[in-house]
Amino acid sequence: MNKLKIVVLLTATSVGAMAQTKKPAPKLKANTVSASALRSSLERGKEMYATYCVTCHQTDGGGVPNLNAPLIKSSNVVGDKKKLINILLKGMQGIDIDGESYSNVMPSASYLTDQQIADVLTYIRNNFENKASAVTAAEVNLIRKSK
Amino acid sequence: MKSVAYSTLKIALGALMIVCASLAAEAQTLKVPAGFKTSIVADNLGKARHIALTKKGDLYVKLARPVNGKGILFLKDKDGDGKYDETSGFGSYGGTGIYLKDNYLYASSDEEVFRYELDENQAVVKPESPEKIVKGLIARNQHETKSIVLDNSANIYVTIGAYSNSCQVQDRRQGSPGRPGCPILDSAGGVWQFKSDRLNQSYGEGIRYATGLRNVVGLDWNSQDKSLYVMQHGRDQLSMFPDLFSSEQSAELPSECMFKIIKNDDAGWPYIYYDHIQKKNILAPEYGGDGKKEGDTKYIKPVVGFPAHLAPNGLLFYTGEQFPAKYKNGAFIAFHGSWNRSPQAQEGYYVAFVPFKNGAPSGDWEIFAEGFAGVEVVNSPRQAQHRPCGLAQGPDGSLFVSDDVKGTIYKISYTKN
Fold first, then answer.
1. Domains along the sequence of chain B with CATH
2. How far is CA A26 from the centre of its chain?
3. Do B171 and A107 touch (CB under 8 A)?
4. Which band of pLDDT confidence, cut at 50, 70 and 90, is reported for residue B359?
5. Once rounded to an integer, what is the mean pLDDT over residues B332-357?
6. What global pTM score does this model have?
7. Of B144, B171, B250, the CB nearest to A105
8. Looking at CA atoms only, how far is residue B171 from chain A in angstroms?
9. Where are the domains of chain A?
10. In CATH, what class is A34-145?
């Protein structure tokens, strides 16, 4: 992929907070990603999804009843990016979602690079009836370092 | 704008699928061999797991989740029209296992096993005060359901699934190695034997009857050769090792196995898996395997190796007189259907049959009843409208099949013409 032009606008306050102390978790604010960068991120994200997620979450993102959570119209998927990035970095198990429990483990995907995580999250945030802003590698990096 | 067009197309396709699905539901009939007929004898019960029939043909159903606070349903056919028309319930816990033997009904939650005394009609005497015979079993959010069966010597066998796919240091994580001397096997990943008439037993009082079994949901006692038979849900995601296994190989391997269990048998999980194409026990990649290296010869081999990931949830040796001679003493298996074959189409969602003679399979397995899913191809498991789970034999020799999606109970009978 050639020269991704990604502009991340972090609020001055959160950057300031980061500089002074590690404690307060960084706030991720609006970012603008150019249309072409978004397109290539989505393309890579699709491949990531097919390699690392499709077994459990299925081609249609519908998951498996009682086993693997659906990603379709998921409030966690389109919601707070920090929470979403952490689900990927740390994994998730035994947490009820919308009153349903899932008897499987969501493995940590921390072995993926920041860019790969950003791509796959951008992909699921813009597929399976979801529509939400892109996730950038810089945002993933910020969360990864903040723990 | 391409993505807008694409999602419009997806919505249109989705709507079409819903229309097709509702048509299919109306027209749905199971496909069974010539001479057999099927009927729906109960519907919309909830997540109906295993089932048990009384000598009068009344039906007990164990629900995965209680409905209106009842985890066990008791169904009667009052007017004798062949459909259950009276339902009562008891037992506030969800679970999978239910088994009727002589004067007791046995049922399991994910941690315990209870028994209920029966009257001369095999109706439960005191539904609200069962005896707790087993307690404190491990249930860690994966393979946590317990299935049960009794032999003819007052022993009850309880399956305890491994809370892991292949005992990796980090479960299902790419590149994570297998834990040496897998500690899960101390308290799970096997079948435990308890006394059916002793109260409050746990690991200390039970015997680890067989180990190296990742997750068993379907099991039965074969009275003809006095042995326990189990169906294992094999490991999946061999594709976590992309250098060794393609996604096609990960979809086709390993085999779902039927094992005949002799006390102290070790079926080899997590160290090996059975490859039904090579017909060998192969060393698991988490433990240094490469898809070819064979495992230790101490591990037992299956009596039947079915295709991968079909998820056998019910096993029943047929002892009735109603079905043709070929079925006598043979094994019926309810396959819940796969989820771990994607991106390929899923498989299973049917009841299979294996003929047996003198305690061993006497022919190839075959599909006995299919069409439960109600769709031609299941690409994603949630498309399946029904999934076979439990099996039971009626007093007249009919075969009953439960479905845990909608809670439909099917009856399959042989009518000759």
1. 31-414 (2.120.10.30)
2. 15
3. yes
4. confident
5. 94
6. 0.88
7. B171
8. 7
9. 34-145
10. mainly alpha
